[in-house]
Amino acid sequence: MDPMFRWLETSAFSTWTRESTSVFAYPTFLSAHAIGMGLAVGVCVAVAFHRLGWLPGVPGHELRRWSFVLWFGVLLNAASGVLLLIAYPTKALTNPVFYLKLACIAVGLWLYRAMDRRLEPTTVLDARAGVEGAWPDRSALRRVAVGSLVSWAAAITAGRLLAYTYRRLFVDF
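Now predict its structure.
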């Protein structure tokens, strides 16, 4: 992998991203990553809070309107994450915490989808009765919501730890 890392690290774009004093380089990519994270995680947290019963005045189907914000945030994070990765490929790709972060994001999105599918009534009778989604029991739904909150907190923590837990900054470091 070192030859690939070396090639990427010495590319003009990687060097510019890392070493430029322009606000349009690393600071912009990092800011976009933080904004995308806020959008994606914010919607997931709102849905989890609703499922835990902490947002009683908000109908579940109204939260579904914000799903596009989550997916826009995920796309913004993916794009800005790739740009940040190009700046320091060895630092990220040789760090197990990076893979933990990706796993936590995958779990968080999977749990969000599990909760999102139940934001609308499943039948006409459920809609008339005001029942949102058919879960086997309420405790299963609560466990999914708590799992979602834990996975997003772990993803954010892992992302922050990436700056401090690397063993190799560059190929020849």
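The chain has one domain: 2-161.
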